[in-house]
Amino acid sequence: MKTIMVDMDDVLTSGKFEEYLEEFLGEKKDIQSDTSYYRQKFIKGREQEFIEQFQFRNLYEDAPLFDGCFEVLQKLNQSYDIYIVTSYIWKEDIFDAAENLKNKFRYLQSQLPFIPPQKYIFMENKNMIPFDIKIDDRMKNLENASQKLLFTSWSNKEVSTQELQKNNITRVNNWYDIEKLLLEQ
Ligand SMILES: [Mg+2]
């Protein structure tokens, strides 16, 4: 059975960072159309203030899964060995890592009950573990896999087709693209 690594943030759900950011800044922010690598830049210079207000807030409370995510993962789970691999440490610890780890665990348990906790991997450097297939929104996390699927998100919209080809990466825009690639061929 082939193994699949599935990233959590911006692949399963976008969480609530955007909402918290808007609450903090007191204005609407179109961060989905911003292409910078780290969204933390929006609070630059005010990190301490942000930490005081938000470090223990739950980034996943009531956050919906992306369209099709539940159904497609459930189908994939019949013929692939699926692992959720996710980092829980934010730069400068603007969300408390221990709290974030717990919130991620609870979210995965409640939203994807068919994937047991034994198949959660919480780690920073995802390149260390080889998988047959990797699905992530960050190119660097796709290394060490035979099949690499880049899940379209704000951080990778500007990656060109040539760059993807050069690195042997296929872009997927949503969970239905994943279904077509991994279940209908
Ligand atoms: Mg991600």
Can you list the ligands bound to this structure? magnesium ion
Task: State the oligomer.
Answer: single chain
Mean pLDDT, all residues: 94
- The appropriate CATH architecture is 3-Layer(aba) Sandwich
Walk across the major sheet and give the strand order.
Answer: 3-2-1-4-5-6
Q: What is the tally of helical segments?
A: 6
β-sheet strand percentage: 15-25%
Low-confidence stretches: none
**CA-based shape:** globular
Task: Write up this protein.
This protein is α/β, with parallel strands linked by helices. It has helices at about 15-25, 45-55, 70-80, 95-110, 160-165, 175-185, and strands at about 5, 80-85, 120, 130-135, 145-150, 170. It has a six-stranded parallel β-sheet with strand order 3-2-1-4-5-6. The two termini are about 15 Å apart. The model has no long low-confidence stretch (mean pLDDT about 95).
Task: Lay out the secondary structure.
Elements lengths: L2 E4 L10 H9 L21 H8 L14 H11 L1 E6 L10 H15 L8 E3 L8 E6 L8 E7 L9 H6 L2 E4 L2 H9 L2
Parallel strand pairs: 1-2, 1-4, 2-3, 4-5, 5-6
The structure holds magnesium ion.
Magnesium ion binds next to loops.
In brief, what are we looking at here?
This protein is of the alpha/beta class and 185 residues long.
Characteristics:
about 180 residues, globular, binds magnesium ion, six-stranded parallel β-sheet, Rossmann fold, 6 strands, alpha/beta
